C-alpha cells in the first residue's frame, strides 16, 4: 500500500469515529421518542428493556471510540473499520427488530412515524458513515428492512407502499450513497495530496535553509550560521546572566601555504582543519563555523574561562598532531584566541567578539601556534551602562 493510500485509509477511519459522536444524541433522542409513542401499545417492560439495550450499545461504542482515539488509531485501518461496523450492525439490528415487532402493534399514524424516523436514522448514518460503505450497509439494511416487512405484511394495501419504500432505499444505498462517498473520498485524497505537497515543500525549505547556513567548502557552519547562533545563545544566556565562551582560530602562515602550494591545496587544508575543529563542537548548543578566510570560530555556551581555554588548548594540540605538511613552517598549526562573557541584556555580543579577536592577535604576536585568553570576563562596566530614560 502506497503512502497516499495508507494515509487515505487512516483518515477515513478517523473521520468515521469522529462523525459518529455527532449521531449519539440523535439515537438517544429518537429512542426516547419511540418509547413515548409506543407507551400504551407495547408492554412497558419490553420498551424499557429495548431502550436500555440501545443506550448500552451507544455507551459501549462511545467507550470503544474513545479508546481508539487515545491509542491514536495504531491498529490497522481495516481492523478499525471492522470494529466500527460491528457496533453499527448491532445498533441497526436493535432498531430493525424494534421496528419489526412494534410497527404492527400501533395505529397507522404511528406506523408512519416509526417508518419515517427509521429512514431519518438511515439518512443520519449516511452523513456519519460516509467514509465506510461496510459500516453504513451493516447499519442501514438491518434497520429499514424489518419495519418495511412488518408494514407490508400487516395489510394487503400496504404492500405497494412498502415495496416502493424498499425500492427507494435500495436506490439510495446502492446508487446515491456510493457516488457521494466517492466524492468525499476524492476530497480526502486531494487534501492528503496537498498535505504531502506542503510537507515536501517544508522539507525542501528546511534543506535550503540548512544549505544557506553551511559553508560549501568545509561543510561546517558559515558566518551567517555563526551570527544566528550567537544571537540565539546570547538571548538564552541573558535570561539568567549565564556565561558564553567564544574561541577564534586562525591558521598560521596560511598565505604562504597558498602561495607555495596553490589554492586547490589550500582548500584541502581548510577542509582538514575544519574537520579537526568540528570535533570540539561536542554539545548540542556548541557550534563550529568558518568565520572568514582561514579563520574559524567555536561558540561554547555555559562555559567558564578555564573550560573554554582548556578546549582551545586541546583543539590547538589536535591540529598540530594532524601534522599536515606546511611548505614554510613544517606542519600546519593554528593560533587561538579565547574570551568568555557574562551575558546580560545591556551587553552587546560585539564585545565578546572583540575580546576573542584581541586574544587571537596576542597569540599571533607572541609566536603563533599558541592559545591566548582574555584577561577577564567580558561583562558590563560603568561606561556600558545605559539609563532607561536615555
From TrEMBL:
Biological classification of the source: Bacteria, Pseudomonadati, Pseudomonadota, Gammaproteobacteria, Alteromonadales
Source organism superkingdom: Bacteria
NCBIfam families xrefs: GGDEF
Its EC number(s): 2.7.7.65
Protein name: diguanylate cyclase
Keywords associated with the record: Membrane, Nucleotidyltransferase, Transferase, Transmembrane, Transmembrane helix
SUPFAM superfamilies: Nucleotide cyclase
Leader peptide range in chain numbering: none
InterPro entries named in the record: Diguanylate_Cyclase (IPR050469), GGDEF_dom (IPR000160), Nucleotide_cyclase (IPR029787), Rev_trsase/Diguanyl_cyclase (IPR043128)
Gene3D superfamilies (UniProt xref): 3.30.70.270
Transmembrane segments: 20-41, 47-63, 84-103, 109-127, 134-153, 159-180
Species annotation: Corallincola platygyrae
The keyword rRNA processing appears for this protein: no
Amino acid at each position: 500500500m502506497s503512502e497516499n493510500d495508507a494515509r487515505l485509509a487512516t483518515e477515513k477511519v478517523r473521520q468515521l469515529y469522529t462523525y459518529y459522536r455527532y449521531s449519539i444524541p440523535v439515537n438517544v433522542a429518537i429512542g426516547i421518542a419511540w418509547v413515548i409513542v409506543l407507551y400504551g401499545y407495547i408492554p412497558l417492560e419490553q420498551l424499557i428493556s429495548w431502550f436500555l439495550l440501545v443506550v448500552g450499545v451507544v455507551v459501549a461504542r462511545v467507550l470503544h471510540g474513545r479508546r481508539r482515539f487515545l491509542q491514536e488509531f495504531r491498529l490497522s485501518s481495516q481492523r478499525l473499520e471492522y470494529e466500527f461496523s460491528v457496533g453499527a450492525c448491532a445498533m441497526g439490528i436493535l432498531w430493525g427488530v424494534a421496528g419489526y415487532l412494534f410497527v404492527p402493534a400501533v395505529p397507522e399514524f404511528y406506523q408512519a412515524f416509526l417508518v419515517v424516523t427509521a429512514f431519518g436514522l438511515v439518512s443520519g448514518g449516511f452523513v456519519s458513515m460516509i467514509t465506510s460503505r461496510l459500516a453504513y450497509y451493516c447499519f442501514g439494511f438491518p434497520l429499514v428492512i424489518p419495519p418495511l416487512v412488518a408494514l407490508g405484511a400487516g395489510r394487503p394495501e400496504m404492500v405497494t407502499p412498502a415495496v416502493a419504500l424498499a425500492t427507494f432505499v435500495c436506490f439510495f444505498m446502492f446508487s446515491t450513497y456510493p457516488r457521494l462517498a466517492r466524492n468525499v473520498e476524492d476530497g480526502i485524497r486531494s487534501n492528503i495530496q496537498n498535505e504531502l505537497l506542503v510537507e515536501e515543500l517544508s522539507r525542501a525549505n528546511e534543506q535550503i535553509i540548512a544549505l544557506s547556513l553551511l559553508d560549501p567548502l568545509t561543510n561546517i557552519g558559515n558566518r551567517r550560521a555563526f551570527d544566528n547562533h550567537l544571537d540565539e545563545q546570547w538571548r538564552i544566556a541573558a535570561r539568567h546572566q549565564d556565561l558564553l565562551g567564544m574561541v577564534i582560530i586562525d591558521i598560521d602562515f596560511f598565505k604562504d601555504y597558498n602561495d607555495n602550494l596553490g589554492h586547490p591545496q589550500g582548500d584541502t587544508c581548510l577542509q582538514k582543519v575544519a574537520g579537526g575543529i568540528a570535533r570540539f563542537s561536542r554539545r548540542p548548543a556548541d557550534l563550529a563555523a568558518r568565520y572568514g578566510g582561514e579563520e574559524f570560530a567555536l561558540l561554547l555556551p555555559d562555559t567558564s574561562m578555564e573550560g573554554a581555554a582548556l578546549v582551545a588548548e586541546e583543539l590547538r594540540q589536535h591540529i598540530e598532531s594532524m601534522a599536515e605538511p606546511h611548505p614554510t613552517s613544517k606542519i600546519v598549526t593554528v593560533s587561538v584566541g579565547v574570551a568568555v562573557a557574562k551575558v546580560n541584556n545591556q551587553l552587546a555580543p560585539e564585545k565578546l567578539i572583540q575580546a576573542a579577536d584581541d586574544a587571537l592577535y596576542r597569540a599571533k604576536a607572541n609566536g603563533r601556534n599558541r592559545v591566548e585568553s582574555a584577561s577577564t570576563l567580558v561583562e558590563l562596566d560603568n561606561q556600558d551602562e545605559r539609563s532607561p530614560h536615555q
